Amino acid sequence: MTQLFDEKGNVTGVTVIEAGPNYVTQVKTVERDGYSAVQLGFGEVKPKKLTRGELGHLGLLKPDDKHPNRRKLEGVPPLMYLEEVRMAEVPYREGDVIKADLFAVGDRVSVTGTMKGRGFAGNIKRHGFHRQRKTHGASDRERAPGSIGAGTTPGHVPKGRRMAGHYGNVRATVTNLKVVMVDPERNLIAVAGSVPGPKGGIVVIKDSHKSGKR
Fold it and tell me: Are 197 and 203 spatial neighbours (Cβ–Cβ below 8 Å)?
């Protein structure tokens, strides 16, 4: 995260995201696969970091006597991350490159990522509970959850009671973020606000359904 200033001198906290280049590694159709989708690859790596199955999927293995019909993709390098996105109509072909210039300043997007893992956390950190008073003999109970169920009716702890437990390391989506900067040369975009995940985390950016377009 960083800050950007506009022409009037107003400052906005933003998250800078590397939004490309993304390679179209597979196109799925209703006739062949039962649904319409596009698979994107990101993160160029050395071929030795991928398995032969992954290299074959990306069309990076040469045909031989045992496999004369191996898949071929033009212009697709070894890629570490693959993500499939369903679309009503896919306007791309295998081998196309999608860059940051797909976005424009003012667009509204949704960003999905994996939250930071915070391990075992209490009610205050995990759910935002208010701490208790330190008075009347409760000097060591200020961060405890208090009563979790009635003693008589219903006489048990209700299902779904918010308690201490594992916090984070789950998929989360932040919607309706405004794109405030696009740098096509470096494939960077900046969105106002924060996004899920740590620095260097992998995220998926889509048009926000709240913007009125998909």
Answer: yes
In this structure, what token pair is assigned to residue 205? 């950016």
Return all residues near 56 (Cβ < 8 A) that are at least 6 apart. 70, 71
CATH number of 1-20+99-131+163-214: 2.40.30.10
Tens-digit pLDDT profile for residues 6-21: 889 999 999 999 998 9
pTM, two decimal places: 0.82
Which residues are 86's β-sheet partners?
37
From the centroid of its chain, how far is CA 140? 40
Strand partners, 45: none
Can you tell me whether residue 55 is helix, strand or coil? helix
CA distances from 81 to 20, 44, 151, 153 (A): 12, 9, 52, 52
Share of the chain residues as helix, strand and coil, in percent rounded to the nearest 5: 10, 35, 55
What are the sequence ranges of the domains in the chain? 1-20+99-131+163-214, 21-98
Fold adopted by 21-98: Double Stranded RNA Binding Domain (3.30.160)
* Residue 11 phi, psi (nearest 5): -100, 140
